[in-house]
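Incident review: delayed structure delivery

Summary: a single-chain prediction request sat in the queue longer than the usual turnaround. Root cause was a stuck worker, restarted by the on-call engineer. No data loss occurred. The affected request and its eventual output are reproduced below so the record is complete for anyone auditing the incident later.

Affected input:
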Amino acid sequence: MLTKIKFAPGIDKQDTAVGAEGRWVDSDNVRFRYGLPEKVGGWQSLLNESIVGVARKQHAFVDKEGNRYVAIGTDKFLLIYFEGQLHDVTPIKATIGSVTMSATDASQQVSLTFSSAHNLQSGDIILLDNVTVPAGIGLTDAAFEDKLFQVTRVTSNLIAIITGTQTTTGAATGGACDIIPYEPVGPAAQSYGYGWGIGQYGGTVQGSVTTTLNGALLADTNGTGGTGSTINVTSNSGFPTAGTIAVQNELITYTGKGTNTLTGITRGAFGTATTGTSNGQAHSSGEIVTNATDWGGWGDAVDAGTITLEPGLWSLSNFGDVLVATIANGKTFTWNSDITARLTTRASTTTSGFSTTNNPTATRVTLISPTTRHLIHLGTETTIGTASTQDDMFIRFSEDENINSYTPQATNTAGTQRIQDGTKIMGALVAKENILVWTDNALYTMKFVGAPFTFGFEQVGTNCGLIGKNAAIEIDGVAYWMGNNGFFSFDGTVNTLPCSVEDYIYDDIDTTKGQQVCAGINNLFTEVTWWYPTSGSDFNNRYVVYNYGQNNAQLPMGNWYTGVNTNSIRTTWVDSLVYPRPYATAYNSSNDGTFPEVIGQDGLGQSVFFEHETGTDQVNPDGSVTALTSFIQSFSFSLQPNQAEVFLAMRRFLPNFKVLTGNNKVTLSIKDYPSQDDIETSLSPFTIDSSTLKVDTRARGRYANIKIENTGVGESWRFGTFQVDLQPDGRRG
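Output delivered after worker restart:
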């Protein structure tokens, strides 16, 4: 008896494989179009180089001349993509002059000594200028002049940099150089405790002395090399007698110190132990050790155990031709595309005609009101210029058409507002009729009402907060977002989105890293995608898709699909509005990027800039091609829903693909009991191509499911229907 097995679109992980009747239960790199599953479109690198660091924000815009740009904010840089090339426009801090250089023999490290405190942090990026190297070290001025370096070691008046592949041939002190620090953005990953790039961007550490480990630390023991309660360091000068240190993301307390040792240690303090253990994390000898004893959050004493260090984030928008860029919890800068030297001019607080010198210096989120042209600061200072007054629930907006005027007067529209429900503003979006403002618990609308209040605020939802700054998106007047406990939409009313994969996501998502969640709209296929990190992962490693255009009455839990393919994970996304196809970034922490060139970079990782929905594969920066593997697996079906006691004899199935380029592998699995593991049939897997008319299976069992897989380069597929020759084959207890 030839039976057609029907499958509804989307993935159902709320039920069991047997209970999810008529549904697909697992997938990767698959979407649903017109109710049928198909392999997603491919993507190709837009550049022959990769970006240094992890990209956290994209913003595409068009200037009045019709030129198209993409601004990309990473944890280290602000970049402009224009006509196929990247340009570094990262804002810089004041130049530090007359810095002395020194080096030891046969070393790849150079020390830079300052005449006074420099306020640099390990991991900061610096530009060297006016370099004269000390005579006798065997390196030239050109090895350092106008080059970028990563700060690797810090004391109060000294930093160290790595020379890359060059090695000194002698020891000397002298020479001089100027240091141009890049504005620090923040760490690559969200973490607990102390990290680099803080300064005013997340708190301060008083006297942040650093040294290095003199011996490895293991994750399964208390002390150095697996013994005792003592940590050996290169030097403990400047460290308090008792306190807290940070090694990477781990906090370690100690009660005393000896000769270059810290004693009475407690590993993994304040919840920073390796997941699933009560001990610490593994660290190599030579890792940086930082004094994190006195943490102050903008002048307020904060227990280290309560600190979550957010990743380096940006707010990016445009005021006409002008890009407005704000470092999360930091300053606001502008970059003008309407000048001749725009691609060699850095973003600045003093951009001619678009100065932000009067802007707050500590703001969580900014955006431009498109109709009224106000620059809005959310989670900002109550006293402009005093970072210690930053209030995570306070909103300040500029005068209309003037992004540098914030003093409320009877003759202007500048003003302030503090909202109440929640502990901090998480994000904001421009919607069809309102500006939407999320806290960690609620949603507010912000609507222009005119004088004397300028904007009116209304709370429209509670217990619907935003998990991270970039976890909300808007399309066609509807906003979609990911919260700490579910998915939501707003079309004038807050709605909970029924989700057929909700438990799968929230049972494993790391909500403490919510600021790394990235949402993106692909309007070509009516999809909203969220990329997110799971427990134990430092970076995004899964995604979930909601198809808002493919729902119907037969899908009460919505049309959702998921994936874990490493090649498919993104950190930023911009839809096909300015450009004909979506642009996105993927991050790899194992390989260092090539632009901008950072000499001696260590552990910064790389982001690849992709154009999506082109071809069938992944085309890498070097031109190599990676196949996009895809699969989809069905529920476990029986002969009849009410006849599961009857064994099935499956003689053959008839493959039916709407599109099939290349070969697909089809696996037929059976089992006798719902809780039993799937067992591949003896003849599986079957190779299917466009000429395959039927497949003989000769399988027997109570339940069966199919899995469709594709792993080839240049191949694509779209499924049709599934017909199988099923015959009852007796009953058995």
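Verification: Residues 74 and 476 are 28 Å apart (CA to CA).
Action items: add queue-age alerting; document worker restart procedure.
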